[in-house]
Write a sequence for this structure.
């Protein structure tokens, strides 16, 4: 979480310097994403993420250098060879597929992934991430409907940070929670405090076990705060009151987790400081390294359009 | 330790300056690279400017509340490292570009300096390409252009050529690879005075004749020759008294034995062919920047046919006897005059002979038959008083004299070569006496 | 040699591919218990079971999204959109997502999926059971689009589509399903994607066409030959990638081209073929590039006179041939 936070902040700085064209922050979501990943099995499970899964990516083993190659669009970006926005593409080591920026298209795709596993009898769970805004898309309804009918081995993981860019929750839905909709599809829905690592972990574990047992989908909704604007192109002072922005400081998951661990004597202050120092160091090294690296050659732009190289235009 | 100037960086703004809000570090303080140094206030957003390197802040050069242009120095520091990568300057935003003198210029508008749009809205100003890229391979240019082998006539060229009676085969194309373009056809069609000039310069007493297609072809051909080939001229006088005597003595026998009318042309042709054999540059062509020495010696003979000048060709003239040449000439000239020439008759000429003397001319400066290198005229045979020197003693005698005039392509042939050729023809002709065996 | 209709060839090919490769799964509306509204999958759920023949809810975006997800996870989904007119909700999953998976993951993920789409009019289908939808897909890098018009081609191209590692849209003209009958070898074969075929050689003019129009063009060419005109008919068979070499070779040889399509003309396959001819055959043209298409109307009116006026026909093609020939 700490490493993710430092890297996240660094990426925003790089954007202000004109080097990182676009970034969506996971600041405020760190605990929920780490806890969720922890309850799954990256050696066999499938992850379909969206643009805000910065911390989840790192929890799945993506190195700071790899993350930065995406944000700085450098040669060697492992996700998409920098053809896509950062974090998008396919992960080189785990089955993570973060495909487009069109919202919620990943839900029917996740249902397809889970369907394939079920038909083959593979022991894998598909976790698909999305936000409160995505919950409104037709694709979300179609995917959940099908998942419920077929009892697919899937976990729908909604990170509700109360804003879809600027549209607040009460303009996004007429119900109080996204989780309440699960009943309409025939499977359970639970709402969890997204700053509580243990609560998120336990909810995810239960959902994953349910899926593995063949009992079908679960919808988990975690409540989090979006500490930064929607992306580096947004300015949330335009639509959020100063009080609303200020109160988020009490919901910072990195601080809360640190305090919780220290309160329970699982972490000393010295250890905490050491973690921060090491995170900062790693982020600085990664920044200096990747900043000096080259961009992808224009020739490679024509690769992988179809399986037939000759077909690409030039 | 290196003294380093800290500049206010260009950031994603639509204005080019910022107000110093609050300094977050003081002179003397040690700063880490990326530490926030100063808060600045811009039109859109307040931002923290980070330290570009680790070291000690030494001087503040802008006060809180100052308005400072982007790029100006706001502080100084001493860096820990020997080399510091300066923040790469953003590429200069284009000055407001005005559309060149268009009447709609106001409605078209101009480009606003410094305005930018980020990937999803926002004001991101991209600096990622402001430093030169390490070796990206240039894209290989797609090869295009017409097929070099075939001569292409585009639809519009064919149409215009038909409309204006232009012979496409005679045109030099100015397009890529020698392609005949629409302009070429129109230019060829207009090689006659333009119609407006015509209208202005004719009077009621004048008669305007529409040239026949053949006349147009000839005209185009002449224009091509004279515009492309740098002509030069040389001439010699030939004493053909002997040739005249031979013909007078043998003409009737020739007609009776061979049924061939014997003119002076076969004699000239015989000597010209022999001379061409030893002066190959006279029998050549300037093609695509190269001098092509023609292997065959095919001499075209200009003939006045009913429709105009035609040039039937005597093929392989160098190997033939006088009789053979006389027969060939007889045949082609008959066909030319009766308008029954075949394609073979006009094909493949490498040199041209023109008997302008037949109508009394004593001097010629003929136009070379493109793409050949030279043309020879034989002028009228006139009895003249000439001086002969024998045993150091001059006397005036009456001799039959014929001028022969060479026009030659000065790209290929110099005066010396021309003279050598003319001398050879002259020597051949002057060697003929009344009892020469052919 | 056995003869089959197009729908029989399609059905047999799907069955053969499903027997050949376990990872081929079928999904779509009514494909299971009903056997498909055109009976394309008649008997399949009985043979392959509910797990491989999936009756989906009524949700086209879902169908294509499911196909994409399953394809990315090791299956070869063969999805059906019941009528081309219903494909529009799925455009994003196909054009925005499936087409770009390989490119956007630098080849790490691929989408070996096939979407079969019955299309076309002349069946009294009105505005919502007659549309031609090829243009959007044929425009999209990353997608492959085939349009077989004969039973022989339907088998070969559908097999190639299913075995292809790329997302392929297979456009089957619904009128040809039962109208066209022809020889189909029993043995396994594929037809290479991206190759047009000269269905009728000729020397004076080339008709470039595809789909139902192929058969009308062949009829017209036959009539024209009785009038002494020697017309070549080139069947595109694949709409993306277009076989530009075949188009250029034929038109350069004959010197005249008539492009016949059922779709409306603006920004269509005929526009692209015309561009190719202009680029590659300019100096060999003996007449202007000519198109015969539907008129610029929403395809297509329901009442019979208007439907007939909308659709190209053999008679209209004969008239176009004659007009181009006399130039």
């Amino acid at each position: 979480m700490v490493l993710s936070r430092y890297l996240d902040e660094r990426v925003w700085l790089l954007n202000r310097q004109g080097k990182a064209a676009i970034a969506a922050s996971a600041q405020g979501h760190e605990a929920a994403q780490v806890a969720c990943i922890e309850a799954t099995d990256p050696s066999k499970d499938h992850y379909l993420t969206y643009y805000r899964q910065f911390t989840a990516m790192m929890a799945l083993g993506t190195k700071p250098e790899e993350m930065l190659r995406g944000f700085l669009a450098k040669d060697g970006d492992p996700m998409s060879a920098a053809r896509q926005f950062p974090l998008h593409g396919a992960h080189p080591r785990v089955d993570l597929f973060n495909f487009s920026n069109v919202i919620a298209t990943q839900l029917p795709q996740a249902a397809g992934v889970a369907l394939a596993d079920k038909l083959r009898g593979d022991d894998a769970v598909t976790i698909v991430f999305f936000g409160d805004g995505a919950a409104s898309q037709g694709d979300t309804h179609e995917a959940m409907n099908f998942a419920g009918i077929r009892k697919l081995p899937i976990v729908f993981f909604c990170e509700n940070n109360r804003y879809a860019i600027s549209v607040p929750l009460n303009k996004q839905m007429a119900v109080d929670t996204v989780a309440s909709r699960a009943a309409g599809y025939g499977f359970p829905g639970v709402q969890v405090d997204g700053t509580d690592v243990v609560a998120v972990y336990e909810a995810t574990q239960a959902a994953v076990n349910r899926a593995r047992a063949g009992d079908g989908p679960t919808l988990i909704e975690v409540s989090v705060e979006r500490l930064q604007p929607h992306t580096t192109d947004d300015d949330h002072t335009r639509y959020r009151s100063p009080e609303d922005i200020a109160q988020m400081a009490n919901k910072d998951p990195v601080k809360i987790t640190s305090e919780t661990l220290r309160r329970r004597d699982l972490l000393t202050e010295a250890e905490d400081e050491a973690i921060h120092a090491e995170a900062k160091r790693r982020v600085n090294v990664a920044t200096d390294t990747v900043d000096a690296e080259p961009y992808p050659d224009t020739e490679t732009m024509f690769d992988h359009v179809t399986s037939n190289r000759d077909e690409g235009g030039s | 330790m290196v003294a380093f100037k800290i500049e206010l960086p260009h950031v994603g703004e639509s204005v080019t300056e910022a107000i110093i809000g609050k300094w977050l570090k003081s002179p003397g303080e040690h700063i880490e690279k990326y530490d926030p140094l100063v808060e600045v206030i811009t039109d859109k957003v307040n931002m923290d400017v980070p330290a570009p390197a680790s070291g000690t802040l030494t001087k503040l050069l802008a006060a809180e509340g100052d308005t400072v242009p982007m790029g100006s120095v706001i502080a100084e520091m001493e860096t820990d490292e020997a080399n510091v990568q300066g923040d790469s300057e953003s590429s200069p935003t284009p000055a407001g570009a005005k559309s060149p003198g268009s009447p709609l210029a106001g409605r078209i508008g101009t480009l606003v300096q410094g305005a930018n749009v980020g990937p999803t809205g926002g004001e991101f100003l991209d600096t990622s390409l402001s430093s030169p890229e390490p070796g990206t391979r240039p894209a290989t240019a797609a090869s295009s252009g017409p097929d070099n082998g075939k001569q292409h006539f585009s639809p519009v060229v064919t149409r215009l050529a038909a409309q204006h009676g232009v012979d496409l085969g005679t045109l030099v194309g100015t397009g890529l690879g020698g392609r005949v373009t629409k302009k070429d056809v129109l230019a060829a069609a207009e090689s006659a005075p333009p119609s407006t000039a015509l209208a202005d310069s004719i009077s009621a007493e004048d008669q305007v004749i529409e040239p026949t297609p053949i006349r147009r072809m000839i005209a185009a051909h002449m224009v091509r020759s004279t515009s492309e080939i740098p002509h030069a001229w040389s001439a010699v006088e030939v004493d053909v008294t002997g040739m005249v005597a031979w013909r007078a003595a043998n003409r009737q026998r020739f007609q009776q034995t061979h049924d061939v009318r014997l003119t002076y042309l076969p004699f000239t042709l015989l000597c010209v062919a022999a001379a061409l054999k030893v002066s190959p540059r006279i029998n050549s062509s300037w093609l695509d920047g190269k001098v092509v020495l023609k292997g065959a010696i095919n001499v075209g003979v200009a003939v006045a046919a009913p429709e105009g000048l035609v040039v039937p060709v005597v093929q392989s003239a160098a190997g033939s006897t006088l009789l053979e040449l006389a027969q060939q000439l007889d045949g082609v000239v008959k066909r030319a005059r009766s308008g029954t020439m075949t394609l073979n008759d006009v094909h493949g000429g490498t040199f041209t002979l023109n008997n302008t003397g037949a109508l009394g001319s004593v001097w010629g400066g003929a136009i070379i038959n493109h793409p050949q290198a030279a043309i020879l005229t034989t002028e009228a045979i006139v009895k003249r008083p000439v001086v002969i020197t024998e045993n150091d003693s001059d006397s005036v005698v009456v001799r039959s004299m014929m001028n022969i005039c060479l026009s030659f392509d000065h790209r290929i042939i110099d005066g010396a070569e021309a003279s050598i050729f003319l001398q050879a023809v002259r020597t051949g002709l002057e060697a003929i006496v009344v009892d020469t065996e052919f | 040699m056995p003869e089959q209709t197009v729908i029989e060839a399609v059905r047999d090919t799907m069955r053969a591919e499903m027997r050949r490769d376990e990872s081929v799964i079928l999904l779509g509306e009514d494909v299971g218990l009903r056997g498909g509204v055109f009976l394309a999958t008649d008997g399949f759920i009985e043979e392959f079971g509910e797990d491989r023949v999936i009756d989906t809810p009524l949700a086209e975006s879902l169908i294509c999204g499911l196909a994409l997800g399953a394809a990315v996870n090791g299956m070869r989904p063969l999805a059906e959109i019941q009528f081309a007119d219903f494909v529009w909700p799925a455009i994003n999953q196909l054009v925005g997502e499936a087409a770009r998976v390989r490119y956007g993951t630098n080849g790490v993920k691929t989408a070996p999926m096939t979407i079969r789409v019955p299309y076309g009019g002349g069946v009294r289908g009105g505005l919502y059971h007659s549309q031609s939808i090829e243009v959007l897909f044929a425009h999209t890098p990353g997608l492959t689009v085939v349009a077989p018009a004969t039973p022989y081609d339907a088998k070969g191209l559908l097999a190639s589509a299913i075995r292809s590692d790329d997302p392929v849209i297979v456009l089957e003209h619904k009128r040809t399903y039962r109208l066209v009958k022809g020889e189909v070898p029993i043995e396994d074969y594929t037809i290479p994607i991206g190759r047009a075929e000269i269905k009728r050689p000729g020397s004076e003019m080339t008709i470039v066409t595809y789909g139902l129009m192929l058969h009308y063009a062949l009829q017209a060419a036959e009539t024209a030959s009785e009038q002494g005109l020697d017309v070549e008919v080139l069947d595109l068979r694949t709409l993306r990638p277009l076989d530009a070499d075949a188009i250029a070779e034929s038109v350069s040889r004959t010197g005249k081209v008539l492009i016949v399509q059922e779709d409306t003309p603006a920004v269509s396959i005929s526009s692209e073929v015309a561009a190719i001819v202009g680029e590659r055959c300019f100096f060999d043209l003996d007449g202007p590039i000519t198109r015969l298409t539907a008129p610029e109307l929403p395809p297509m009116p329901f009442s019979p006179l208007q439907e007939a006026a909308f659709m190209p026909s053999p008679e209209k093609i004969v008239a176009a041939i004659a007009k181009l020939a006399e130039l």
